[in-house]
Fold this protein.
Amino acid sequence: MLHIFCPHCAEYREEEEFHAKGQAHIPRPLDPEALSDKEWGEYLYFRKNPRGIHHELWVHAAGCRKFFNMTRDTVTYEIHETYKIGEKPTVTAQS
Amino acid sequence: MQRYSGFELFKQSLSHHENWQSVWRNPKPKDKYDVIIVGGGGHGLATAYYLAKVHGITNVAVLEKGYLGGGNTGRNTTIVRSNYLWDEAAHLYEHAMKLWEGLSQDLNYNVMFSQRGVLNLGHTLQDMRDIQRRVNANRLNGIDGEILDTKQVQEIVPMMDCSANTRYPVMGASWQPRAGVARHDAVAWGFARAADAMGVDMIQQTEVVDMIIEDGTITGVKTNRYGDIKADKVGCVVAGNSSVLANMAGFELPLESHPLQALVSEPIKPVLDTVVMSNHVHGYISQSDKGDLVIGAGIDGYNGYGQRGSYPTIEHTVQAILELFPMFSRVRMNRQWGGIVDTCPDACPILSDTPVKNLFFNCGWGTGGFKATPGSGHVFAECLAKGELSELAKPFSMFRFHNGALIDEHGAAGVAH
Ligand SMILES: Cc1cc2nc3c(=O)[nH]c(=O)nc-3n(C[C@H](O)[C@H](O)[C@H](O)COP(=O)(O)OP(=O)(O)OC[C@H]3O[C@@H](n4cnc5c(N)ncnc54)[C@H](O)[C@@H]3O)c2cc1C
Ligand SMILES: [Zn+2]
């Protein structure tokens, strides 16, 4: 069971209150019409799927219902940090 | 290869079963192969087997980082069926079903394929409409299927709660009589033994840590144990680790790896002689020949490589099973584990060439690839032998995510496992 700190509620809550929503920091293309099929396909479907440090989007579904980001290790499941949308992660695979 | 038979069993009993040949060799790898298969799960081993058997290519190595069949092949709930909605998928899974039907004879190894039928339950009007659509599509593709009402379901599984008093009453089901289960370990061992007998090298405890790529063409792999091994072609069949291997080769795949869990109970007397699956309440259950109830869960929502899942997922599954089978409420669970499944956005596999020449991937089977094991290997072997995608594989290229020709089995085809 993951214990997740919601940066909006500023509290630890149990995993069941949350939903994982996949890779974080995927910017929506500013001019979709200008994209090639390959670029559009990659935006829609291709995802980073690392073994190790991953930045992902979560929603506090049974709580404040707000979205936030998490840096988590996909092997140990250790949560390094949670942070609000628009903020940058402080823990990265390089650091 | 020493053939297994009743006579051989008798003969070996005279020397107290101490002189059986080992099931495969454990050779040191050569410097170079025609084809290297990365991943010694069922799909990789089946690929090696059909490469040798159908295409006469025997200078082949299977590189496995752990032990043969120790990945999802040895962790799944063994359901085999072919009642998928879309033509492309139905043809692929039915191709596998036909191979299953002769597999034990073909391999001279008992894979305990048991066609005890699979029920996919419907609990809502929409479920029932989807079932009608799918069964009709199946029949048009020559795949057996029937639509059952509540009473007919109750006759097949007398101890399931089909009353109107449940939270999600059973309104009917699709029924594929030719579907069933098989012994997962035996499938890996049977393919490995038969491939080994034709000269394929099984190299266990050897992890591929990098790819050797020259001018956009793969020429070999780097391993943690035997250094560089050269190959004309490389096929990656590593399920949950596919993205990791693709990154080594310098590209991304449209995959996410998730933990998927299963659990088995203590052995009990025979109570369930078929397979029951429900997408709506999300649970699936069968009983092994040994007597344990084999129960499968859903995936954890987050990405994970930890080969373990979270407890809330198990709890939800057990709730669903008890809703259907209140009589199992006192059964004790013996073991629980997870595998890492590579889920694809359209819930269909990837059998594909890649941006790197002579490098092929067979992955994305996600939560439901065990049923495809022989078919997947048969088709992928043809791709590797010819150096291009075979007819059955073509719709499953990774480039379908660029041109939009997805095969959406998610919504419709009782996609559980
Ligand atoms: C709990 C659970 C229940 C399931 N239930 C069903 C079911 O009922 N019916 C069904 O059809 N399917 C089911 N599945 C899915 C099915 O198990 C898989 O789709 C299928 O077994 C995949 O086979 P594979 O050979 O591709 O992968 P695997 O058996 O996982 O083999 C891949 C192998 O690659 C190896 N490997 C990885 N990286 C490297 C590397 N770098 N170097 C060397 N080797 C490497 C791994 O060690 C592994 O042995 C289930 C899966 C799980 C986890
Ligand atoms: Zn919150």
